[in-house]
Specification:
The protein is an alpha+beta fold. The chain has helices at 2-74, 77-80, 84-92, 131-138, 185-192, 230-235, 274-277, 279-325, 335-352, 366-373, 375-391, 417-433, 463-479; strands spanning 101-108, 113-116, 145-146, 150-151, 159-168, 174-183, 201-206, 211-215, 240-246, 253-260, 266-273, 356-363, 399-404, 407-413, 448-455, 485-487.
C-alpha cells in the first residue's frame, strides 16, 4: 500500500527536483554571464581610460616643453633684444600653430600682455584677476600649473584651460607669467571618439573636483564643482580603481573606472551605464531563462502526468486485486481469501496459544426463495445478509467471507465460545430484522441459521477440524428448527 502511494509521489518530486536543478544550473550560468559582462566592461573602460590618458599626457608634455622654452628665452638677453617678429618666432617657434591651442602669452608682473604669439604687436589685455596668475604670483614654487576652465577674453568666450609657468627676476621676485591656452574642444573631440554606449560618460576632472570636460557634452557641466559628490570621494581614495554608483549629474547608475594622472593634477574617469553593460546579457538571459523555465515547467507537468497515470494504474491494479480477493456480489472476502485468512489466523493462534472461533452462517430455505422471487431478488437478499454480517463484526482482526451459494463464514480470532455465540446471535437477529418477505419460510421472512465452533490451546487438530465442527453445528441448527444459533457440541 505504501509503495503504491509513494511511487507516483516519487516521480512527481523527482521531476520537480530535476527541473529545479536544471533551472538552478541555468541561473548559475546566466549569473556568471552577468559577472563576465561586468568584467568585460571594466576591462574596456580601463583600455579607453589609458588611451585618453596617454594622449593627454603626450600633448601636455609638449605644451610644458613649449612653456619652458619661453621661460628660458625670457632669461636670455640676446633673445629679448631681437626685433618683435624674430623674438616671437624664437620664443614660440611653431607651437602656436598647433591644433587646439588658443593663445601663447607672456604677461608682466601686472598681468598685462607683453608678448603675444598671435601678433607682433601684443593684444590689449590684463589677466591679473585670473586664478592662474594669482597662484603663480603668490607661490614661487608652483611650477607647471593647470587652471580650471574659463571663458577666453581674447577669443570670444571660447572655453579653455591655461597651462602656466612663473617668470622670475634674478633675485627671485615675480616677473610675470607665461601661459598656453588650450581649447576644451581638444578634450571634447578626444572623448567623442570613445565608444561607451548611449548612456556612457567620460570625464576629465581636476584633483580639486572641478569638471574640465565631460562627454556627453553639456556646457553647464564645465567648471562644475563635484568635490562633494560620492563618486569624487572614490576618485581621490586610490591612484586607480572601479566601482558602481549613481551619478550626481544625471542620476544614471554606472560602472566607474578612474585613474589619477601620475604627473598631472588630473583624473580621467570612464563610466559605462549598467543598462548598456547588461543590455545584451539581459536579452540573452530573458531568452534562455524563459526557455529553461518553460522547459522546467513542462518537465514538472510531464512528471505530474506520469504520476497521475501511475496512480491510476496502481488504483486499477488495487481494484483488480480487490476484485480477485472479494466476492463481487456481497463485497465480502471470497473463498480463496478465506483460505489465506484461516491459514494466517490459525498459525497466529497456535503460536500465541490464543483462542480461535468460527461462525458458519446459512440462509434458511434460500432455494425456495430464489424459486419464488427470482434470482435478482435472491442476489439482493444475499447482499443484504452480507451487510448484516459485516455490520456486526467490529474488530479489525475479525473477517467475513462468502463460502459459497448462501453460506458465509466469520473468522473471530482471540474470541472464546461465549463471545462467538453472542456475535452469532447479533448477526441472526439483524438478518431477521431485515424483514425480507419469504413465503416459503416457516417464519414468513428471510432468516439464517448459524453454527459456531472454537479452538482452545488445550486441543489438538488443525483448522479443518474447526471448520468441520462449525459446519456440524450449523447442520444441527437447521435440523432443530432453523433461525437459531447452535454451538458445536462434541458427541
Amino acid at each position: 500500500m505504501w509503495r503504491g502511494r509513494l511511487a507516483p509521489q516519487a516521480i512527481i518530486w523527482g521531476g520537480i527536483f530535476v527541473a529545479l536543478v536544471m533551472v538552478s544550473l541555468c541561473a548559475t550560468v546566466l549569473y556568471q554571464g552577468r559577472l563576465d559582462a561586468m568584467d568585460r566592461a571594466r576591462e574596456t573602460s580601463r583600455n579607453l581610460a589609458l588611451i585618453a590618458e596617454r594622449d593627454i599626457e603626450r600633448n601636455f608634455e609638449l605644451y610644458a616643453l613649449s612653456l619652458q622654452a619661453v621661460v628660458d628665452g625670457m632669461r636670455d638677453p640676446d633673445v629679448l633684444a631681437l626685433p618683435p617678429r624674430q623674438r616671437r618666432q624664437m620664443l614660440f617657434d611653431r607651437a602656436a600653430t598647433a591644433k587646439y591651442l588658443g593663445s601663447m602669452l607672456v604677461l608682466d608682473a601686472s598681468g598685462n600682455i607683453v608678448i603675444d604669439s598671435g601678433s607682433d604687436i601684443p593684444r590689449k589685455g590684463n589677466f591679473a584677476d585670473r586664478k592662474y596668475f594669482i597662484i603663480q604670483r603668490d607661490n614661487p614654487n608652483v611650477g607647471l600649473y593647470i587652471s580650471d576652465p574659463y571663458a577666453s577674453r581674447l577669443r570670444g568666450g571660447s572655453p579653455s584651460i591655461a597651462l602656466t609657468r612663473r617668470l622670475s627676476h634674478p633675485d627671485g621676485s615675480f616677473a610675470g607669467v607665461v601661459l598656453i591656452a588650450v581649447n576644451l574642444e581638444y578634450f571634447h573631440n578626444l572623448f567623442a571618439g570613445l565608444s561607451l554606449g548611449s548612456h556612457g560618460a567620460v570625464s576629465l576632472i581636476g584633483q580639486d573636483g572641478i569638471m574640465v570636460m565631460r562627454q556627453p557634452y553639456d556646457v553647464r557641466t564645465i567648471g562644475r564643482d563635484i568635490s562633494k559628490a560620492s563618486t569624487f570621494q572614490h576618485f581621490r581614495s586610490a591612484p586607480e580603481g572601479s566601482f558602481s554608483d549613481t551619478a550626481s549629474i544625471d542620476g544614471v547608475r554606472r560602472l566607474y573606472l578612474f585613474r589619477n594622472f601620475p604627473d598631472l593634477p588630473l583624473i580621467i574617469m570612464v563610466a559605462e551605464a549598467e543598462q548598456d553593460i547588461y543590455a545584451a546579457w539581459r536579452q540573452r538571459a530573458m531568452t534562455i531563462g524563459s526557455l529553461m523555465v518553460a522547459f522546467g515547467l513542462g518537465f514538472v507537468a510531464l512528471s505530474f502526468l506520469l504520476g497521475a497515470q501511475l496512480r491510476r494504474r496502481i488504483r486499477a491494479e488495487s481494484e483488480l486485486e480487490l476484485l480477485a480477493r472479494t466476492d463481487g456480489l456481497t463485497g465480502l472476502n471470497n473463498r480463496r481469501t478465506l483460505g489465506e485468512i484461516l491459514d494466517q489466523e490459525w498459525r497466529r493462534a497456535r503460536r500465541s496459544r490464543s483462542m480461535f472461533s468460527l461462525l458458519f452462517v446459512d440462509i434458511d430455505r434460500f432455494k425456495a426463495y430464489n424459486d419464488t422471487y427470482g434470482h435478482q431478488a435472491g442476489d439482493d437478499a444475499l447482499a443484504a445478509v452480507a451487510r448484516c454480517i459485516g455490520d456486526n463484526i467490529r474488530r479489525p482482526v475479525d473477517s467475513a467471507a462468502r463460502y459459497g451459494g448462501e453460506e458465509f463464514v466469520v473468522v473471530l480470532p482471540d474470541t472464546p465460545p461465549a463471545g462467538a455465540a453472542q456475535i452469532a446471535e447479533q448477526i441472526r437477529e439483524a438478518i431477521s430484522e431485515l424483514a425480507i418477505e419469504h413465503a416459503g419460510s416457516e417464519y414468513g421472512r428471510v432468516t439464517a441459521s448459524i453454527g459456531t465452533a472454537s479452538w482452545t490451546p488445550e486441543q489438538d487438530g488443525d483448522v479443518t477440524a474447526v471448520i468441520k465442527a462449525a459446519d456440524e453445528a450449523l447442520y444441527n441448527a437447521k435440523a432443530t428448527g432453523r433461525n437459531k444459533v447452535s454451538p458445536f457440541s462434541p458427541a
